[in-house]
Each structure stands twice: as C-alpha cells, then as structure tokens.
C-alpha cells in the first residue's frame, strides 16, 4: 500500500466519522473510497470501509511505519492490507452481524432520495449525497451503539450497582446469552438493553471516551460489558457524569476505569482489617460494658472509621496539616477514639456520670468536641484533628465547621486549602432532609466562603430513626443535594471494605486535585435501633430480620482475607484480642478518674490568649484624633484620581457629606462604624463583616465597596487600604442564607480571638431562619462546650411603619435566652463589676443610639479579656438621622462605652423638678426626645437610654433611681408588650428597686399592647399606635403646644424660602467626574428641605392622617440614588436650631416626627442629649457655609501616610487568590 492509499484510508475514517453530520462529509468519504478503489490493489470497498472505520488514523500510520521496517512485525492481516493482498474471508475480524441479531432493531435505512434540482435536503444541502453501502452504516451504527452503551454505564451504571448490603434495594440481575448474570438493566442501557443478548464475541474498537481497555484498543463486546459491569455496577456506584467540567469527569473516569486501579497490596489489606477490627471492637466493647447506655453505635457502617482514616492519611500525605471534622451522633465516640486518638479512658470516663470540676452545663458525650495534634504514623507527619462540638440539631454544625476551617486557612495563610481540610460526616436522612445542608453547600464555591472543597461522608444506614427512606425523601439518593455543586458522588457498599477504601482514596485525591466538594455515600445498615435501647422491629421488621442474619462486615472481611491468605485465622484473632485488651486497660484506667473537666473537650483552644491575662481588665476603647482623621479622610475620599476610577455621582455626594462631617468633627452611623473597623485594622485585628448586601449596606448607608461605573469588576474599598501594615478587612456580600452564613461566621469567630467577626441581617427578624444557630451555638456554646466566641450580630430593628417582618429583630428572644438572674442584685461595689458581669453572661445584648457607642461597643468586643457574642440591634432611620451623630470627642482616648446614657439636659441638671423618669432603649429615644420638646416637658421628663440591655446595668440604673427619688418611673418601648425588652427589664427593675428599702415605686409599661405580629403593616395604624404611645407618656398636645409648633413651622418655612431665593443651588455635578477628579465643592449650604409643612405632618391629636406616620423615612432597600437624595448634607446637627427650643431647653430641641422636618429645625444632640456643637461651632459653620469637596489627592493634608490604594479586579476566583498577601498581614498567630 502506498502513502496515497494510506492517506485515503485516514480520510475515509475521518470522513466516515463525520459522515453523520452532513452530506459533504459523506461525499468526501465516498471520494476517498474511490481513490482507494482506483489506487488499491483489489481490496473491496466494504473491507476498507470497515477497516478504516474501526481504526484510528494514528494507529494505522504507526502500524504502517512498523510494517515498512519489518513486514513481519505486524499481524498477518495488516501485512496483507499494506502489501495489497486480499484477505481471505476466514481471516477477517468478526464484524458485528447485525442482521443475524434477533433482538436488535434493524439498521437505519440510509436511503438517500435524490434531490431534484433546487430542492433542499433535510440537512440543508442543495443536493442529496449518494448513499454509503449498507454495511458501512451498520458498522458505524454498531460502534455508536457500543459508545452509547459505555456512556450508559458511565452515566447510569450506578443505578444498577450492588450497593445495598441488605439486598433490599437494587436491581435484579439478568442472564445474558453467554449465561452471565448481568446487572445492567433496562434502567441503565435503555434502548440498548437488547444488545447484551447479541453476538458477544464481536470485536470493537474502544472510543476515546473510555479507559476500560487500558492499553488495549479493541475488546470483544463481552469483555466490554464485563468490565463496565465490574466498574459501574459492582460495589461502587459513581455519579459523575453530571459534572460539567470535562477535566473532572475524565479524571474520575480515569481513576475508575483503568484496569488494575483497585488492587490493594497485602499490607494494605491487613492494615484495613486492623482498622476495621478497631472500629468494630470499640462498639463491641461499649455494648458489652454499657449495654443500656446510648452511644449511637456504628454497627452496620463500621467501615466509616477506616474510610475516614484513609482520607486523613491520604490528605496528610498530600500536605494537609489540619483536618476539621463535623459530625452528628452516629459513631462519634468511635471517631474520637480511633481517628483522633482521644484516650479511650477519657471517653469511658464520660460513661461514669462524674462531676465536672469546671463551670458550664456540659453536654452529652456524643456531642462533645475535641482537638488533638498528633503524629500520623502512616505518613509520619504531624496532623491536627478537630472534631467540632455538635448540638443535637442535625447538620447545623456544617456551616460552623466550614467557617472555622475558612478562618484557619486565613490564619495559616493557606490560600488554596492545601493545609486545612474539612470533612463532614452526615446521616442519610438528615443529609437529604435538613435545609442547612443545601445552604452550606452553596457556600462551597463563593470566593469569601470557600473552603476549597469539603469531603462529605454519609453514613447511610438506610433509615432515619424509625423512618424508611421512601418516606423521608423524594430523591433517589440521599445525596442528591450534592449534585447542585457538581460534586462527584461515590455510592459504595459498606460491606465491601476495599471498595470503601478505594473511594476514600479517590475523594481525597479529588479534593487535593480540584479543591471542590466530593461525597462518599457509605451504604450500610444499622444493626441496632436508633440508639441501643430502641427496638427496631417495631417499625422495620423485615429489614431487621435480614440484618439479624447478616454477618458483621469485620467477620466477612476477615474470612475473605483468610481465604486469600493475607492473614491467618490466629493472626486475626490476635488482632481482635489486642484491641480488646486496649479497651479493657482503658476501662480500668477510667475507673480511677473521679472528676471530669469540660475544658478537656474543647474543640477550639486559644493558646496564649488567656494565659497571663487579667480577664477582668477592660482596656480603653477610645482612639486618638489623628487616627480618627486618617480613617475619616480615607473613608470619605473617592479613589485617587490617578486610577481613573469612575465613581457614581450619588456616592461622590455621600463622600462629600462624610468629608464635611470629618471637618466638622462629627460622625454619623457609618462613619462611627468605619472608625471602629479602621482602628481595629490599624491595631492588627482582622475584621470580617458578612451578610446579605453588607458591602453597600441594606439601607445604602455603608458603601464600603465602591464600583467602577464603566469597568466591570473593578472595585475599591478604602478601609482595606488605611495603613500599610494594617490587618485585612473582609466585607462580604453573602449568599441569601441566614442559617448557613451566620453558622459560618460563628465558626469563623471560633478559630481565633484576634478578629472581629460580624454577621449582619438584612432586617433583624430574618435571623428567624438562623434560629438554630443562635440557640444551639451562639447562646449556649460557651456553657455547653466551654468555647468562646466574640461573634457580633447586627440586627436592624425599629418600628418605622415598615410592616411585620421589617420591624423587629426580636429583642425579646435574645433577652429571654440571656442567662443572668433577674432576681439577684449583683455586687455592684465590686471594682470589676462591669467586666465580671460581662464575663458571666452568655452574651451581650445592646440597642445603641449613637455612633460613638457603636464604635466603643465594637472595639470592646476585642478589648475584653474574654470573648462574648454581641447581639446589637442596629438602627434603620437613625443611620441618617441628623440627631444620631456623635462628636469626635466621644471617640477619643477619654471616652468609653456608655452602658446607659443619662439625661444631661435640663431634666438631668435639675432632677428635683423631674416628674417622670423615662427609661428606654434604641431609636424610640429620638421620638421621645422630639415629643418632649413638642410637649414642652424638657424640665419635667428625664429620658434615660439603656444602651446595654444585657447584662443589665444595675449600678447605673440604681444611680438613676436615686437621682430622681420622687419621679414616676416609666419604661417606654415602641415594641408590643410581649416583645421588645420589657419582659427582660421589668423583673430587673424590680430587683434594683427592691434593693433600696425605702423604695416603693415600680416601673410602669408604656408601649404597644401585646400582639402576635411584631408590627402593623398599615401606616395609619402605625401612627395611631405611635400617638397612643406618646400620649401615654406626655399626654395630648395642649393648644399652647400646638400654637407654638405652628409658629415655628411658619418661621422656618419663611426662612427656607428666603434662603432658597438668596443662595445658588449646590447640586453636585450632573455627571460623575471622570478619572476620579473631585466633584466641585459646594459653594454654599446645600438646599434645605422644606421645613415642617402641616399637610405632610400627621395631625396631632387628630384621629388619623394619610401622611407618613413613621418617625423617620422608611429606610428600606433603597437604591443608591434615592439614598443619596434622602441623606441631607445640611442637617441641623450642623447649623439649624429652633431658637425658641434652644433657649427654652438649654439643650437641643426635640427631633421631629418626620425626620426631614426635624432635620430642618433641630440641632443634633450628642449622645448625652446635648448638641455636639457649641453654639460658636454651629455659627462658625454657618459662616463658612460650604461643604468642601472630598479630598482627592492621597497626599492631601489630611492624610496620614495611607497605604496606596489597590484596585481590585474582581474575578470569580477565591478571595485569597485575589489577595495572596493576606496571610502575611494576618495578625493572628497560628495556633500550632
Ligand atoms: C434538626 C433535628 N431534627 C430531628 C432530630 C431528631 N433525630 C435525631 S437522630 C434522627 C434520625 C437521623 O437519621 P439519619 O440522619 O439517617 O442518621 P442516623 O441516626 O440514621 O445515623 C432524628 C430524626 C434532630 N436531632 N435534629
Ligand atoms: Mg440513617
């Protein structure tokens, strides 16, 4: 055969391969065949056709070269072909004799109808292709069928896999023509099912989409089926064809299909037997010693321990240094004993019912966590294994574990998950049933939440408590949830230890290679009831009849290895006896233990944090004015101009307002928060804020991440570039999950005390969907597991007429879970009273009213000598309320957190005149403040803000009670009576009052009546309720009050009109300045909103009003532009004062019901009720009259050596890839 003939053959093959796609290719193929016919030496077209069809071009070329060198080096048939001799029919490979197959559908008739000129064929060509000879098509068809069969096994083989050790679930076997029992059922092969009854000796060329051939390129149909059966329908059913990545599917295919890949060496088998002996031996021992104790044994899924162990070995061998395990009850003690190597005596001592020597309530033994650093003898590497303490609430540990793993990666500078690896062990019913599984899995590939792959192992005992899978899930597998993240899922028969080990290796390697989630579903059974005292025959009689007949996996495997000659019977018996002795010795040892310590079960030790520290020392939280300026200037500046960052004009306006505030030395909520974050970052504390839309802020007030307006994914975060050596700042918009994200952040906070970790709810009561995390981890974690966390929850809360679900953060629930005793008056004379109170409570609950207090409160979180969760109810309207601002002096070194803010106005100065002492918390203070002014009761009503509700500030409350000895005592809240803080504060007020023998007063409730709904959705009703509340405190407005208010309004309207006529507009530029150039500085005070206009003001004393009834603008999910519109640069905090009110009260006038109105007539009180400005400051500002433009140049006078801002091109990669330096900046020390 000459080169021309060979090339033609190659062309034939290629063309035929493409033949199905179009007429042109078929034509090409025909032409090529004709070439061979004319140049060939007597070979028939059919032979060549089939020959070319079955071989690869490269293969033929290789053979041809070989043949040229030595004609005898190739098979006789090739020699004939290349030398041009005709083959005899007897020498021919058996071709798929489709015509002789009974059950096979007839080959598709490729009759080509000649197209008349101008007619178009179905394929769109202008003319029809001549038909290929029928045998060509048969051959092609046959190969396609083979390919489809292979594909069917690959994608659906798991449906016919032999996974159930009980033999209850699973397909039936079918007898093929060769008498072989095959699993592959119609479900797998579908339309190709009949093929397994074909001529099984037919030889086929294997397609490139399979590796079952190994080095062989041709296999008989029988061999193909046998191999596919073994691989896909044996004891492993692998689901991987759903994965969209070709690299990953090829990788898995390679691992499963390559012949010989599953063989274990003798030593490996022996090791496996040893591990299985330990796993089974441990449960047997416990069963023997504590037959009636609950331990949630592993029997029936004993292979779980060797499987985890294999994953651990493999991963540590590949460089993993820390493994975090999250799991529920089943087999937990076994994991502690045989994976973590917790001394068995320690575990057994938990069964003795001993007293604990440390504080806390402890937890049941199968929930306890632990932490161990040890040498892995198999790999000779140190490995740290953590089993995270677990509440009974199934699967809720998952996000906590992930957050902890993520934080550990951060601490170690592990930006790819190479050193830290999470493993989660699931139950079958809970894996499919608990929504948090799905929510957590959805974090798996998010840049700020990824743990670079988690290994999931399901101990699938085919039952959940008493419920069969058919009643507990609609999906075929309990693992189907993992398909959403494209995870490969390896179902494996738990009674085949070697298959399980094989899967363990593959998942460990997969995670190392791809850093993605992967699942093993260990399909076993549960030998006992749900717990050892349960009778399973009540509900699963048939299943348990089978189970009773089954030999334990250990016995089966031992028999197998004895038969194979891997171990002898006596060796196996010695193995069992040896482990029994270990357990017996531990038992004896455990009997000597007389007390237990909860702290020895801690899963997150913080070495070095508590040692040598005076826990009761509260460090100052104030900072210098220079730091305030640096942070303030950076935070208020747009990105430097050289970066040509196009900033939204609304943002520029906000930045201009911030600049103005910095110049005026006053801070609003977002600036106060930025001061807290920035100063902590400066001090090396990593700050992480996570939650839905936190980057901008739900209420569009934060704007930490600025977005380039014309370039995608280019963002700027000034707080990440304050100081060259600052700690990293992570502000992360989360997935729309509360449960998983809050759990994640809680886990993140557990990893190190040197970080401020916050989760913000979109609205406070969305924490409803994270209740389990709140109850079982945050509220009680320290008590149960001696584990601290300083996680902060920011829950927007206040009644603004926004409806039932957008109003309440459910303060009452958090307070109800607080564990300070309402009936015990603490020792307030103790010098460490404040710190001790904080240390002894389970969490801190605050409802703050000033930015400065937020600042101090957040900083206190990391300044304390211990860690406590903080639940802070954040404001909504106060975010922009002109009165809710703090002067810089409230942030300085002399300032501190104020647990209670007394009345510092006229009432506070002349307490003897005070008739009513009103205690309140949060935003309602501003309503009361305004109404007191309107009602002209500033001298007679004292307003006291309880900023820290829990622990209750008894000392300060008592001081207030003593200061106003004759005043009537009121608790005023805007929430309904059965909500808010009332039920918490009432008994505590009583306790404080009872302390004083001469006291006969009690505190009365003023607020909304009880309700099942947190708030009305009707604005009119909202206002009616509001009015009733106000009237109950101050009474109705008198005619004099009304007259005075009307006069005020008229005056201000007139003034506003005059101002508007005399001063030019200070509107910001209509289009954003390009290249980051500064917006033109306003030339005068920004136009003021119209003053209170009666029509827009709810009628006082009237029955209803259509007007806005809230006391503040509804700060819903406003867009940025409207947010910018809503925020008033010329707030009266800076310049406006109602002279009459000012004079009369000697303090700031009250805020208005409608904040815009109030904004236009009230000067801002500081948090203590006094204007942050002196009159001089206020008038100076009025004189200067302009809001300067934000500083543009990084070298501007107000900057103190800021680090060069970096523009981050956001990519879908992980955050850590984006910022590989984060580990270097990490202030937290690795805990090793
Ligand atoms: C959130 C939650 N709901 C219900 C329970 C009660 N419960 C404990 S174990 C269990 C069955 C769990 O079945 P599965 O996940 O299959 O684990 P198994 O016990 O079979 O190992 C149930 C319903 C619980 N602990 N947590
Ligand atoms: Mg189960």
From TrEMBL:
Residues 78-138, 1046-1232 are annotated as: Disordered. Its main location: mitochondrion. Residues 80-92 have a biased composition (Polar residues). This is 2-oxoglutarate dehydrogenase, mitochondrial. It is found in: Mitochondrion. CDD domains: TPP_E1_OGDC_like. Residues 667-881 form the Transketolase-like pyrimidine-binding domain. Residues 106-119, 1046-1060, 1210-1232 have a biased composition (Basic and acidic residues). The gene is Dere\GG14806. Belongs to the alpha-ketoglutarate dehydrogenase family. Keywords: Glycolysis, Magnesium, Metal-binding, Mitochondrion, Oxidoreductase, Thiamine pyrophosphate, Transit peptide. GO terms for molecular function: metal ion binding; oxoglutarate dehydrogenase (succinyl-transferring) activity; thiamine pyrophosphate binding. Pfam families: 2-oxogl_dehyd_N, E1_dh, OxoGdeHyase_C, Transket_pyr. It comes from Drosophila erecta (Fruit fly). Its EC number is 1.2.4.2. GO terms for biological process: glycolytic process; tricarboxylic acid cycle.
